[in-house]
Amino acid sequence: MNFSFVSGNISTSGALVVTIFEDGEFSKTAELLDKSTGGALRRSIESNRFKGKNGDFLEILAPSGLSNSRIVLAGLGKTTNLKVTDIENLGGKLFRDLASKGEKEVSVILDDLKVGRLDESTLASHLSFGALLRTYKFDTYKTLKKTDNASLLDNFIVHCAEPRSAKTSFDKLEKVSEGVFLTRQLVSEPPNQLYPETFATQAKELELLGVKVTILNEKEIIDLGMNALYAVGMGSEKESKVVIMEWNGAPGGVEEKPLAFVGKGVTFDTGGISLKPAAGMEDMKFDMGGAGTVFGLMKVLAGRKAKVNVVGACGLAENMPAGNAQRPGDIVTSYSGKTIEVLNTDAEGRLVLADVLSYTQEKFKPRLVIDLATLTGAIIVALGNDIAGIFSNDDNISEQLTSAGNAVDERVWRLPLAECYDKLLDCDAADMKNIGGRAAGSITAAQFLQRFIENGTPWVHIDIAGVAWSTKEKPTAAKGATGFGVRLLDRFVADNYEA
Fold first, then answer.
1. Across residues 284-312, what is the average pLDDT?
2. Is the pLDDT assigned to residue 499 strictly greater than 90?
3. What are the boundaries of each domain within the chain?
4. SS3 letters across 456-484
5. Fold for domain 2-163?
6. Is 264 annotated as contributing to ligand binding?
7. d(CA 383, CA 391)
8. Which architecture, in CATH terms, is 176-496?
9. What is the pLDDT of residue 145?
């Protein structure tokens, strides 16, 4: 689909979209269209009891006096409540609705719309960005494809006062969409196609953007002493891997300490010997969602030439039951030297992260560490499927993440860490056990990870188990992989850490 920004004459073909606020206020173009159609807009509003609430549409087909196929009145709600994410959602909904109705072209008139300090041209870019995000679909393995109405929408045109400014802004947002799409694609892939080796190969493509990529094979993992990670993948015929991605964009050069993002990449999780129930196990292909987000984030940062040094580190393994699989009761020595009694082999993600967290801190001495993982079902019980849980030893970074999440509508909520929870991991046979019991499961998982944070390194753990995949469509995403975290962390970096 082509996105363009224009000023001047309004298109007389395809669908034409104008905005309406909840207080009944018409935009300039809406007033002109109402007059040119003999009051058709106001009559339709009255007969359909259209209130102009945020997200509501009212369509007028083949309006008399105009050659456009339809006019769409797009409700924006109350002017005081409008957010930039509402504009992005509008773009996504327009694409979904109009593409499904066979439209080939849509023109949207924003009429000097402003949101806070954001002018019409910036909002035009975000409107198009929302539509672009909604275009992604996972159909890689469909050979008998039905005619897809979405392919019929060829042109998405936004009228604004400064088209060049809008295009410049959109070009930057397009780089973000590329990272989101990479994450969605990786999370959607079936486990017979995406396993540690093929997953690691995806990272090599980032070298074209200037990312230094290092892949540690299983022998190197063993030689380094990453026994916790290695133990998770012992039951699989697929070798475990560790992927290290480095982007050095800081003006101060490579000497400037990097930000570190660490991802859990369990490409399929059967639970191991502590086998999961069969029902729903197919969903465990997205247990690599944390690593997928880190891959997508690195693509965004390198694609837009972010002025910061960043390391992305991901542990990749497949958790399978077999004669040589890790057993409940095994004790492993982690990379840090700390020993772990594995009481449940289905609490494997924290074992993967433990070694990669320790390795990343020792090798790169980062300014901060943020890890992402589809770590616990307990976080879904606590927060549902719209908000991710965060756990941290640093108030400032937690606030920065919360702010970034609110700005891009990838919200996070901070949960507590405390000694009373940490004690639940104490163990008679080893330095710690890998589970703390049913109570506060997400918190004890985070407490486990915190035991591998050294020397007061600022750290945040983001549990994305509830938000990496959606069973319902959203304005800017179809059902399935959401790409959650890419926009959140890109905004976090841009707002707080770029020179």
1. 98
2. no
3. 2-163, 176-496
4. CCCEEEEECCCCCEECCCECCECCEECCC
5. Leucine Aminopeptidase, subunit E; domain 1 (3.40.220)
6. yes
7. 13
8. 3-Layer(aba) Sandwich (3.40)
9. 66
